[in-house]
């Protein structure tokens, strides 16, 4: 079985431009196969991810439901803290690369208030431009001028409501299907310890880890059955993260699945790594002790969630083009956080990975490429998202160990800020 599809091409989302969305007045951010968004609490990291997630939700549900799930349009429109006034609309523009069809696309939506207040929102513009080896296609809808330009393949004469998007309609057709499928398959993980531990009814079969950590037991079981190499890889990373841990598995309780963990019981005659190398790691071994879900530490449970998200079957098979993880280092011992970074770097060969962090620990890891870092800073109520300045990058190239100290002391400077 082909376990891991390596996809060393460009990341799926190569660039993100946002205007007037939450705390972001404007940003223009290039993304890498692995991107770390680093910034202090409430600087705007989640808001940036939410711009991407909003596009996903608007396409899967509808713009109105994507807004309703976030409260109201008012809470999404950027509010100027000094005037207290909110912008009339927000815009999100994504630049995409498709290695499968050797293509590129840009997709842009602009959402604003309905001046007649009949609807919760209006789709002011929606634009798609797609260029691939096989097809050129584009459409553009501009509600302000009432203009509707469609070129390329014939589009069905879809009657769109003023609060609806065209892509979910035309996404049934080639080549639009490639764009729709990829955008709707992006996943945004914000893992919750209780959800990761919960009992999950296996009569509803699940193959993907839920975005709060639902179905962890089922997905681990699926990995063990169908992708043993990937399951062993998850266990291998976990051994690195948690002392004496041998592996985490699905546990069945009637029709319900949850997790349990195998630990080495500390027999001094057979040291841990010797036992692992000898394959003495299975639940039946007298030196292996099994612990139940409620006995497991938060770090064990959360670490398993992060590693399972990265190595789940759909991600390995290229079915999740972008996988974002909020604060993966939470509850992980600072000395072990570099292992998580290495696991994310590995996974970035089969899915684009974005992680947020407010910890310096992730930044001390040798594996971190300063070029994959994006700094998120809040100044006067406005988030700024930038790459490290050229000067900072140069210093760090000579002294990589400065990175974490810079961050801890708030001395990292992005390009924009230096104004050079
Ligand atoms: N519509 C808005 N206009 C201006 N600021 C906003 C808006 N919505 C949220 N914010 C600000 O965004 C900040 C939180 O950003 P968030 O992305 O959650 O931070 P973090 O970096 O911790 O993930 C809050 O301080 C909040 O005031
Ligand atoms: Mg956050």
TrEMBL record:
The keyword DNA damage applies. It holds the Pfam family AAA_21. Residues 34-362 form the ATPase AAA-type core domain. Transmembrane segments: none annotated. InterPro entries: ATPase_AAA_core, P-loop_NTPase, RecF-like. Keywords: DNA damage, SOS response. This is AAA family ATPase. It comes from Nonomuraea ferruginea.
């Amino acid at each position: 079985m082909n376990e891991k599809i390596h996809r060393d091409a460009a990341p799926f989302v190569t660039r993100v431009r946002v205007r007037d969305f939450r705390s972001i007045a404007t940003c223009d951010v290039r993304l890498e196969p692995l991107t770390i968004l680093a910034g202090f609490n409430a600087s705007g990291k989640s808001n940036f991810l939410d711009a991407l997630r909003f596009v996903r939700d608007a396409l899967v549900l509808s713009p109105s439901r994507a807004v309703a799930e976030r409260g109201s349009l008012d809470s999404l429109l950027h509010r100027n803290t000094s005037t207290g006034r909110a912008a009339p609309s927000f815009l999100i523009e994504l630049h995409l690369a498709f290695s499968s069809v050797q293509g590129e696309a840009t997709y842009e939506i602009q959402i604003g208030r309905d001046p007649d207040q009949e609807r919760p929102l209006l789709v002011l513009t929606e634009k798609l431009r797609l260029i691939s080896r096989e097809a050129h296609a584009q459409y553009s809808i501009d509600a302000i001028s009432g203009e509707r330009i469609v070129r390329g393949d014939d589009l069905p004469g879809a009657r769109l409501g003023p609060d609806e998007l065209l892509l979910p309609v035309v996404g049934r057709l080639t080549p639009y299907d490639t764009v729709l499928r990829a955008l709707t398959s992006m996943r945004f993980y914000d893992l919750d310890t209780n959800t990761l531990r919960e009992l999950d009814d296996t009569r509803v079969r699940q193959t993907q880890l839920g975005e709060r950590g639902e179905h962890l037991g089922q997905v681990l079981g699926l990995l063990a059955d169908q992708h043993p190499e990937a399951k062993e890889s998850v266990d291998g990373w976990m051994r690195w993260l948690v002392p004496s841990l041998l592996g985490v598995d699905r546990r069945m309780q009637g029709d319900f699945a949850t997790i349990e963990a195998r630990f080495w019981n500390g027999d001094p005659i057979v040291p841990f790594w010797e036992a692992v190398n000898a394959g003495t790691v299975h639940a039946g071994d007298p030196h292996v002790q099994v612990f139940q879900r409620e006995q497991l530490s938060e770090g064990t449970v959360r670490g398993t969630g992060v590693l399972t998200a990265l190595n789940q079957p759909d991600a390995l098979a290229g079915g999740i083009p972008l996988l974002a993880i909020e604060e993966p280092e939470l509850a992980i011992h600072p000395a072990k956080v570099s292992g998580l970074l290495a696991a994310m770097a590995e996974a970035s060969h089969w899915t684009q990975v974005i992680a947020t962090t407010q910890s310096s620990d992730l930044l001390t890891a040798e594996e971190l490429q300063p070029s994959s870092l994006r700094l998120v800073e809040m100044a006067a109520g406005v988030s700024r998202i930038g790459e490290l300045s050229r000067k900072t990058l140069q210093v760090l190239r000579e002294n990589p160990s400065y990175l974490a100290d810079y961050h801890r002391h708030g001395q990292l400077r992005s390009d924009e800020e230096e104004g050079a």
